[in-house]
Amino acid sequence: MSDSSFLPDDLKDEQSTERYSALKNYISEDIRRLALILIIAGFIGLGIHHFLLCITLGLILFFALQFRSLYIVNQWISQHSQEPPPDLSGVWGALLFNVYRAQRRERMMQAEMVGLIDRAQSSLMALEEAVVLIDEQHCIEWWNPAAERLLSLKFGDHKRQVLTIIRHPDFIQYFNHVNDFPDGIVVESSFHDGRYTQIKLTRFGYESRLLVAYDVTRIHKLEQMRKDFVDNVSHELRTPLTVLSGYLETLSENEEMPQRWKRAFDQMQQQTRRMNALVNDLLLLSRLENESLQAKNQIIDMAELMNQLFDDAQGYNTEYGHTLNLNLESHNDLIGSDMELASAFGNLITNAIKYTPSQGTITIAWQDRGDEAVFSVQDTGIGINPTHLPRLTERFYRVDSGRSRETGGTGLGLAIVKHVLAQHDGHLEIESKEQLGSTFKAVFPKHRLHRPESEENFVDTE
């Protein structure tokens, strides 16, 4: 029998492992054993004149030893596979060693995975954010302690449908249309009065979901305070600005005013108009935020609106001398609020006119793009550095503060545009190159479009 001992905890050194796992060594060992048995049986057979009988008995002995080893291997695999394997020689020894080594590797990997899972679970348990695992049948599988505080989950909720526990209509809508809410939703807690919770769902596997929720009550209150402050201050400023504007206009028209005073009054009027524009934009933003949940389902005649915008642009363009073009290439109308969309489109047009040097070209268009429709304003202005594009729609963000002061910009125009488009399920695309001009595109999805019946009938008859 070969010297092939197996260690339960350590697999000896690399050299020993290679020696024991080399199958050819074990096969040669079995061959040597068979040869030894046959030689001994042959000598005995020659001595007693029964050579073939002794050779046959030798073969039977060899196979009996092999069957015994097979029996031992089977017993170890079926009943004692967690223990060190028995010490066998030959092919069966190699088989036992390799099976045992594979089992040890698998156990080590399992131990590592269990440790990793334990660490992950411990970290999830320590989180202040609620974490809930939801299976493919929309039943709750697991949650951390924070979920008990935020979502009032309890022991009996295991394997219950999540929609029978969190019944807020906004959450049900979100759960059934996750892709429509990329940033999740904020809902008022049904379990704690005056508390607000941000909920984000992530799909994985076939239909399983990971729910993460955290308390945003403080952020919500601060945001509401900001809205109230802006709204109240804007309203409070409006009255004194109106009074100032009126008196300044009256005094400026006085022909007896000294020339050195007239310039000062003109500057005061200019700054008053600028503050009025700022207040009006702030009030508009406030109104848009407060009316965000109101239905916007008017059918807007885009041909009429585009012509109205074009006429207004021509009036505004008088002192700039640009060439204005109007392209109507879509027969679709829009579904939404005509006042809000007219304000957003007007902002894009006036920006293009203001920030394009004299004698430029402004093209206003309404076009189809696959299933979408696009309102675009293209100019031949000075363009915008690409580094500024991601922040253009932030409130009060200015690419060039000096240029904005010269043109009377408030820094809120694109913020208003973005807000209006978001409430109409649209988005803003900006393309710009310095010294080559800019293109602003308001893109609307298919469900916000309406084709007039006359146009449908016309297409059908064709």
Please describe what this structure looks like.
With 462 residues, the protein is α+β, with helices and mostly antiparallel strands. It folds into four domains: 14-119, no CATH class; 127-215, Beta-Lactamase; 221-290, Helix Hairpins (Orthogonal Bundle), CATH 1.10.287.130; 298-454, Heat Shock Protein 90. Helix content is 52%, strand content 17%. The chain has 13 helices and 13 strands. It has helices spanning 14-21, 23-48, 51-79, 90-126, 145-150, 169-176, 217-252, 259-290, 302-316, 338-354, 401-407, 413-423, 453-461, and strands at 130-134, 140-143, 185-188, 196-204, 208-215, 298-300, 323-328, 333-336, 361-369, 372-379, 427-433, 437-444, 449-450. A five-stranded antiparallel β-sheet has the order 2-1-5-4-3, sandwiched between helices. A five-stranded mixed β-sheet has the order 7-9-10-12-11, with helices on one face. A hairpin with a 3-residue loop joins β11 and β12. α9 (302-316) runs parallel beside α10. The model is unreliable at 1-21 and 456-462 (pLDDT under 50).
